[in-house]
């Protein structure tokens, strides 16, 4: 076979491969005009090779990150080396629709991109290639796994009934706030509260109504307290609140407002109207507080003193 014929066959094979490969291939000159646009790019952009040839890529796709891409291409040309970007850093370069619209979970195609210099016979760089890889499956799987792990992590720290912190997670905050006090000496007050005569609610109305009362208390606490406060279900009908940057006097005002709000509320559940009250015990940190467990005991003792004094009231440790 003559050499010219061999070259023609090789060229045809190369062109056919570039058109059929499942990778986007774009060649740009240094004025960012399109020199090559393969079948992958035609299929996903809706623009033919003829329509884009010699057109400025940034005019064709105004949504491209022009400053970022130009800087990348300049670096590739200057250093004569490849540059890469992954979907974790930039989800996509070309905003193409997902190639899996039915089974996919993303509205667009996640992409990895490689930018390579293309040398002329004399060694000069007058063109660059952009190779666009569809990594939607990998990206979606990674995102779904991370979301599942985040959900599991949240569930491991959350009380299922109230969606407040569970006891273990709340005690971690208790220890952290105690250590922060030892280091900086900032005010911090602890509230322990318990639903009064909760057994009567369960006995009279049933456990489903009792659960609704517990949920109502959790929602009321969220509404009355700050996002920086740490709310937890300590066990059964007993709850705990850490109030950072709050003196005992300020905590007493918060606790009394919470007590009154609950006492004035009525829970509608399973055709029953239920009123309930809570008792609250407070303890603030002092230099004499030896440990987080001592701090907890002081608030717990104040809580039970409030119950023994008649319930539906706020008592402070040391007062």
From TrEMBL:
Entries under SUPFAM superfamilies matching the protein: Nucleotide cyclase (SSF55073), PYP-like sensor domain (PAS domain) (SSF55785)
Cofactor dependency: Mg(2+)
Record InterPro entries: Diguanylate_Cyclase, GGDEF_dom, Nucleotide_cyclase, PAS, PAS-like_dom_sf, Rev_trsase/Diguanyl_cyclase
Gene3D superfamilies for this protein: 3.30.70.270, PAS domain (3.30.450.20)
A molecular function GO annotation: diguanylate cyclase activity
SMART domains xref list: GGDEF (SM00267)
NCBIfam families: GGDEF, sensory_box
UniProt name for this protein: diguanylate cyclase
Source organism of the structure: Oceanisphaera profunda
């Amino acid at each position: 076979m003559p050499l010219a014929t061999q070259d023609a066959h090789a060229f045809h094979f190369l062109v056919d491969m570039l058109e059929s490969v499942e990778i986007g291939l774009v060649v740009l000159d240094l004025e960012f005009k399109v020199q090559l646009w393969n079948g992958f790019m035609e299929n996903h952009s809706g623009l033919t090779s003829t329509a884009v040839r010699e057109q400025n890529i940034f005019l064709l796709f105004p949504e491209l990150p022009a400053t970022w891409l130009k800087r990348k291409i300049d670096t590739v040309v200057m250093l004569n080396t490849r540059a890469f970007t992954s979907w974790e850093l930039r989800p996509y370069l070309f905003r193409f629709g997902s190639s899996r619209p039915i089974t996919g979970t993303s509205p667009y195609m996640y992409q990895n991109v490689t930018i390579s210099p293309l040398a002329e016979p004399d060694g000069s760089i007058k063109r660059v290639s952009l190779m666009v890889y569809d990594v939607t499956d990998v990206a979606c799987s990674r995102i779904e796994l991370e979301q599942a792990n985040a959900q599991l992590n949240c569930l491991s720290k959350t009380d299922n009934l109230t969606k407040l912190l569970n006891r273990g997670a709340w005690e971690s905050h208790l220890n952290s706030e105690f250590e922060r006090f030892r280091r900086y000496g900032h005010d911090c007050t602890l509230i322990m509260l318990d639903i009064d005569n909760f057994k009567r609610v369960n006995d009279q109305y049933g456990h489903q109504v009792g659960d609704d009362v517990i949920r109502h208390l959790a929602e009321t606490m969220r509404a009355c307290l700050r996002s920086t406060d740490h709310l937890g279900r300590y066990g059964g009908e007993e709850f705990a609140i850490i109030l950072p940057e709050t003196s005992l006097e300020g905590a007493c005002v918060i606790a009394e407002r919470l007590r009154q709000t609950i006492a004035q509320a009525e829970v509608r559940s399973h055709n029953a109207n239920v009123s309930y009250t809570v008792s609250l015990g407070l303890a603030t940190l002092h230099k004499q507080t030896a440990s987080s467990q001592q701090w907890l005991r002081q608030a717990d003792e104040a809580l039970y003193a409030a119950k023994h004094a008649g319930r539906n009231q706020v008592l402070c440790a040391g007062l």
